[in-house]
Amino acid sequence: MAALLESLLCKKVDIKTVLEWLKNDEEGERLAFSEPQVSVHKQEFVPFLLNFLREQSSRALTHGPATPAKTPNRLRPGAQGCRSAAGAAAGSRSASRVQLFSPSPSVSPGSEWDAASHSLSGVNPFSSPSFATGWSPASRPSGHERRSGQKVSLGDYMVSPPDLQKSPSIQSQKSRRRSGGNMALGGQGKHGGWRQAHHSDEIGRRPSRGGGNSRISEQVSPPSVGQLNLNNLEDFPPVGSSPISPAASKPSRRINPTPVSEERAHSKPKTCFTSIPFTESSSPSLAVDALEGPLTVGSPLSLQEERELLKKEKTKRAQQVSSPLLSSLDPCTPTKSGLGAGSKVTPELQTPCPEPSKVTFSSELDLLAELYCTCISENLVPNIFLELFFVVQLLTSQSAHTHDDDERESLCSVNSEIMERCYLRRVHNCVYFAVKVLQNQFQLVAHLDKCTLRLLAENERVASFSPALRDRLTEAQGGSTAQHSPSVSTFIHSVPFQPATDNQSNFCSTHAFHIFKKQRDIFYEVLREWEDFHKEQGWNFDAALGRRIRGIMSQLTSAGNHSHFARLFLKQLIQVCKGPGVNSSPGETPDADLLGMLGADSLGRLKRLEERLIQPQGVVGPCPPPSFPGHQEFFRDFLQAASCCHLNQHLQDSLCQQLLQLDEVSILSPPASVAGVDEEGDGDMEQQDEKQRFTSVLLLARLLAKFLGFISFLPYQTSERPSREIRDAAVALRSKSVPVLDVCAVLSNSMKRRRTILTVPWLVEFLSMMDFVGPLLLCYRTALGKLLLLYRRMLLGRCGEMCYLNKLLTVSVLGWLFQIPVIPEDIFFTNEFTEVAKLEDSSTSAAGLDCIPLVDQQLLYTCCPFLGEFRKLLAAFVSGSSAKSGGIIRKITPTSAELKDAPTANRSQQKLQVDLEQAFFHNQPPSLRRTVEFVAERVGSNAVKHMKATLVSELVERGEKMLRDGLASPNSNPSKLNDSICAQLCVAGLEAMAKATRFCSEKSPEAIRILLSDETSPAVRTTSENITKRLATEKACSWLSANITALIRREWKSRYDRVMKTAAGPPPPHSRLDVEAAAPEPPTKEEPSAAPKTRRGSERVTSCPPHCSHGASLPSDVLIEMKEWLSIAVGPRTNDELLTGSQAKALLQRVADTLACRKFSTATSEQMLLNSTVLLACRLVSAELPVLSPSEGDGDVAGSGSEPPVRALLEQLAALWQADGCSSAPLHLLFAQLTVSAVLKASDAEWKNYLFLVRKLVDGQVLSEEEVISHWRKLTNLALPAKLVENFQLQSQSIKPPLPLAELQSQLDVLQVSQQAVEGAT
Amino acid sequence: MQSHAYHCNQMKMTLSRAEYKEIVRWTDQLRPTRQCMKTLKERFPNHSQSTLLSIFSLEYQKRTKRTFSRHHAPEVIDGHYQRYLSGAKAHPAAPVLLELANKADLSPALMARIILERFLQGPEGEMPSKTVLNSMLKEPSLIPDPILAKNIYQCTINDCCYGPLVDCIKHAIGQEHEVLLCDKLKERNLSFLDENQLRVMGYDKTPDIILEVPIAVEGHIVHWIESKASFGDDHSHRTYLNEQFWSYWNRFGPGLVIYWYGFIEELDCQRDRGILLKDGFPADIVLCHAAQQNGPPHQPQ
Questions:
Q1: What is the ipTM of this complex?
Q2: Is B177 at the interface with chain A, CB within 8 A?
Q3: Which of A135, A588, A810, A1302 has its CA 20 to 30 A from that of A338?
Q4: Closest Cα partner for A100 from A126, A123, A70, A75?
């Protein structure tokens, strides 16, 4: 290992040989090189190289790319600088000097301590992934791996501050709520300071102290560590004093740095590491590894041998300790002055400006860069972006530099140990190296987002070290498609109720239907509550919602409704979480409400603002752990709280089915003609559509796969990596049952059919949810092995059939997968996994998805949000260096709070329309949306084709004519002519948009009308037509506006060439001049206004008289007045409450009107109104309700029975009852005992009024005389005075044939007798 | 199609919580009688009568619920009954029962019910059927005892919060406002499905109106409209939210609730989550693509 590198550096081995060896994957993995007669495994060499670089640069990176702005104190580099990092720890000559990073735990604040320990152990504290090599001295076993008997090494302190390792769950659970403090420690403990920001989920939320400074300044709590004996060789073995014999090295592995919290799998797997996948596994840890069995499979040495080596090593180092250089330590920084809040230190002043002229070891650096680049290019590194990240860190490294460096330099060069030279000790060298690598990996870099490219291009270091690179970067910005935030509708909706699936006929019983009705509502209630409170401090999901959720579950179980609920759950999940809007990087998820308020046009601005806000914030590194951002968290927590196996099973079934369906989705490859079009270009319209479809399928599949994985592995999740015994038992047990998804088959099939670009990203999501045992099961092991082989094969630099961005996405997600905690550390550098796997050859015939340029930069960044880390890193550097040059650190006050309060009026109409469209589809059957989208897509596409066929060809013809005319004229200049014609044609071409719009407006409604069923309501149909029109027009116009000019130019150019070619020959006949000359279709007429409006809604059984204007008082109003009047009648009352005759008349008139207009009436209100009129009549005839005559003054009760007002009212009433529809008036009440006795008690006038009314009714044929008589007859116990009968009789006789009076008379005696009884009673 | 829907719209409909509280405080001691209503109206001339009545009615119902058990203990009922009997005997023409109800701070209509129920009780204490009871309350002339009948009628007709006539009025008001809502929608040429149609289609929860094509009101999407011919106070709004509005949201998305008699302003705080409150038919309506404008012209009825 080291020997090989050494030989290379000494130029004893030809670099070309090695490069060839690295590149060639056919030949043996081993390289035999002459010198020490050893052979080297590729699998061992690569990690060695990577670690070598990390260690080399560890010093330069101690301050971290995190922020140059915060190297508060000058590092006093001693002569030890020429030694490796470990040496550095041991030596400043002057105790008075202040050193930032010191290993002394007693004084150092956490971060510095951490940094120091890293440098001691050769691990770069700030993320640089470190790869183990055999000679790396410090062991860093993680807490639970450590055996009790083992000595404590400094690395341990770094990894496991006591409270961290023991209860990591606490911090992971609470991390969201805390800022800084212990949390920071947690992050840094493992990964170096700045990375904690990611875990804490606090990006953008943490108080920003002094801009970039905040990152480290928060990590203040020093781990409480016991006093260390720095002379203890076991604790501080010097590094690099002498390389261990190559034989002793083993493939590196990460020390498991994953203090996986108890809840990791269940809750936020935040504590996961980011980019220290391979920490050093040094001698002591080898022993540990050996005990761990399978993990050390690759180790060629026995335990005993290793121990021997270790001993030797120790003795060797013991001798070195006496070296004066190592005898004293640089004094540590006593305080973190400058790191504190608000302090504006500008330590950059001490940071040297890297200069190309000061680069040392340039040839060696070239060689290293070349080796390194080959490893990257050949996918020999587990994650290419991790390496790129490291390189950018080097580029932005801020190693403090003093004049002592020069002295050190001399020491360095003096040093004969070639491996111990400080190649990357100085910032000049780092930058030189980084620029070299960037140059070499330009293609990869060029695919990063525009902003990153700009930051790189503007980076002064790049400019000074390689102007050429800068130029290329500047140029590349143009090619890089702008990463605009997709204008996702922020419209969050419920799952619509669809009668087809949700109404009662879909349930086994009415009971089940009603149960589900309730469960649906509770589900949303829970969701709303979560939205309201989950960010609040102290809120606990299970405590707040668990009981209710389990309540839902038990209800579902009793009703057997799980399938319905599973569908609702999944639909809601997709509704809320699908789409690129869900940023998988926590803290970056834009607040949906906020976006909704701002509207579409503010979105861009907000995004930019947000970016600025985020930039100086924590850089989380390119390997964040799997997470459940945004609403996904709710669904995950819901499942955990529910812990309902029924539900999970239903979900699993459904997820599997949907996933496999999605995986099969057919995406059309672009027509052959377009295949030649530049990959980066927008491509043809169809191609764009397919791309969009692919994007949506892919994102959905990833979401579903993550949840399928989550549910499937949920029962096996453990907080900690299980011990070997448990693991083996679990493997044996679980290998007997069938996994939920046959990942291997899916993968093989996908590879065969070249659909990996779709399958791999979602499989990665699925696998990222595995528990610790999962990867060891044969099925998943095989799948991982296959993925590994696939990764190694997917070389970005090689032209293959697969498009670059497709490959980049695959490589990126795979690289990420290999870094997450549950994936065994050694997967990448052993054969264990690949042994079981085999890559199928793809069937030759099919050209699968892989060959279609489906991935664009936006999709890449959506799937791999961690790629944005480059930008953050560079931006952090910018803010630091601008401060250095006297610039102002951008202080950005988050303004989101204010924006949130922005009035909703700001919401643009355009946004509202889009929302309305979405809303429209929400409650329609899904087929309607599909139809509209399909038609819109087709019509839009046809519009473009139509424009090509008509307008463009006509223009070209016109151009040809102009050209020929021009050529015919003397002194013509063909090239000038060409330009001017082309320009004219392009201007004319702009007409295309208007024409396409007309085309779409005409064609869309036709198609929609044919496709929708006849029963569709006119409003729905019209709306669908309009939406289709809009979508089609938008599609066509956006394509045309972007491409019409280019299209015309292209067409024109070929025509021009042809004309010019034939110009010499005979002029061609104007063959096709009369093509469908773009006579535009007449503008579409508005819809036929026929379509009678069939009002299905609101049809009421009304039978108003013809020409009724419905102007009558509302029944309720009249009822209220009648009630009032009646209550006055019944009393108690005061006289001034009485109505006058005219008031009463008016009221009765209104009653009559209301009864006539039946628009608002219901059976009950009508009946009640009629009742009230009859009751009123009763009170009037008995004079219980006096009526004031208009002439009389207030207060005086009119002659109670005075005829004029009362008679008139009674007449009015009688007329009213005569009217249509009033037959149900309870007129019998007029003859009720109460009424008649009241009349009897009153005066003559009342008698007369009463008879008058009855007579009116009889006359008006409302009642027959027989009815009247029979009513009276019923009053058996009431005396009917003779007078009454007489009067009635008299009236009758005067008008009518005589009543059967004899009969009445015969009863008279009886009645009169009983009347006395009544009077007595009252 | 001129309308009377806004006969009270000139009045202040939405109230701040403070205003509302003042009214409530003032209604605290009121009885549900004509006279009390009159004083209430005089006290708050700027508020619509319907709003005041609705607020009072809601408050009074709360009060009744609180004290209901107090009046329904058998011994209490007996006491009321005996007092009525002796009162009616002494003053057959006096509004004995009504005064009794006011004295006991019980709704007259409820007092009438209790007394009638007691009157109808069989010798063994068996209760009369609900139908008989209700029909007699509705039509006191059916009551065999004319004096009792008179008293009962006096109670039910004078009560403005309870009683068959009040129930009928409330129902009529609700009905009318639904019709008004439909009218307004038709006027704007908005196509919709009503409750009955939805029920036929098998919907499990049905708002008054579902718009076939959603609209936007003051920038908020509206899928459904629920008409409430009452004042929206905290208690009723909370109940409605839990039992109706959220359920509608859960199925049909955001919607609009019209409290025709106003509501407490502060309750309109769920706009962004999809429940919009208005005290009348909204004026600011944005149509989807102005679809209806291109659609078939409105057919006059």
A1: 0.86
A2: no
A3: A588
A4: A75
pLDDT at B185 (0 to 100) = 93
HEC secondary structure over A664-677: HCCCCCCCHHHHHC
Cβ distance A1159 to B179 less than 8 Å, yes or no, reads: yes
Helix H, strand E, coil C: the string for A1010-1076 is HHCCCCCCHHHHHHHHHHHHHHHHHHHHHHHHHHHHHHHHHHHHHHHHHHHHHHCCCCCCCCCCCCC
DSSP A902: S
Yes or no, beta carbons of A1235 and B141 under 8 Å apart: yes
Instruction: Give the pLDDT confidence score for residue A309 in this predicted structure.
Output: 58
Q: Is B146 on the interface with A (CB under 8 A)?
A: yes
Q: Does B133 touch chain A (CB under 8 A)?
A: no
**A183: amino acid identity, one letter:** M
Task: Note the helical H segments in chain B.
Answer: 17-27, 34-43, 49-72, 74-90, 96-104, 108-120, 130-138, 146-158, 164-187, 195-200, 234-240, 246-252, 291-294
φ, ψ for residue A623 (rounded to 5)?
A: -130, 65
CA distance A566 to A648: 8
B296 to A916: CB separation less than 8 angstroms, yes or no? no
Task: Please identify every stretch of chain A with a pLDDT value under 50, giving residue numbers as ranges.
Answer: 27, 35-36, 63-301, 318-349, 402-403, 407, 410, 414, 482-490, 581-604, 612-617, 672-682, 882-906, 1065-1101, 1193-1202, 1296-1322
Per-residue pLDDT tens over the stretch B130-170: 898 999 998 888 888 888 988 999 899 989 889 899 999 99
Q: What does the alpha-carbon distance between residue A805 and residue A811 come to, in Å, rounded to a whole number?
A: 10
pTM of the full structure: 0.68
Task: Using the CB atoms, write b or e for A642-676: b if 16+ within 10 Å.
Answer: bebebbbebbbebbbebbeebbebebebbeeeeee
Decide if A497 and B204 are in contact by the 8 Å CB cutoff: yes
d(CA A164, CA A1085): 73
Collect all residues with Cβ–Cβ distance below 8 Å to A50 and sequence separation of at least 6: A129, A130, A131, A278, A372, A375, A381, A387
Q: What is the DSSP letter of A1290?
A: H
Residue numbers of B between 187 and 216 with CB closer than 8 Å to A = 190-194, 197, 201-205, 209-210, 212-216
Q: What is the Cα–Cα distance from B28 to B36, expressed in whole angstroms?
A: 11
Q: A760: which 2 tokens? A: 């791999």
Amino acid residing at A69: A
Residue A415 and residue A428: Cα distance in Å, rounded?
19
| pLDDT tens figures, B203-223 | 888 999 999 999 999 989 999
Pick left, alpha or beta for residue A697 (phi over 0 → left; psi -120 to 50 → alpha; otherwise beta): alpha
In this predicted structure, what is the pLDDT of residue A925? 85
- State how far the Cα of A256 lies from the Cα of A1142, in Å rounded to an integer: 98
Give the distance from residue A1167's alpha carbon to the nearest chain B alpha carbon, in angstroms. Answer: 10
First-last CA distance in chain A: 123
As a whole number of angstroms, the distance between CA A1210 and CA B247 comes to 52
How close is the nearest chain B Cα to the Cα of A1289, in Å?
Answer: 27
A1205, A1141 contact by CB (below 8 A): yes
Beta bridge partners of B215: B222, B287
Q: Which one of A494, A523, A911 makes the best mutation probe of the B interface by having the most chain B beta carbons within 10 Å?
A: A494
Q: Which amino acid is at A405?
A: D
Residue with tokens 């180790």: A299
Which among B219, B254, B299 has CB closest to A912?
Answer: B219
**If residue A32 lies in a helix (H) or strand (E), which one and from where to where?**
strand A30-33
What separation in angstroms does the CA of A1064 have from each of A590, A968, A1096?
64, 12, 73
B292 touches chain A (CB under 8 A): yes
Contact A1235, A1175 (CB under 8 A): no
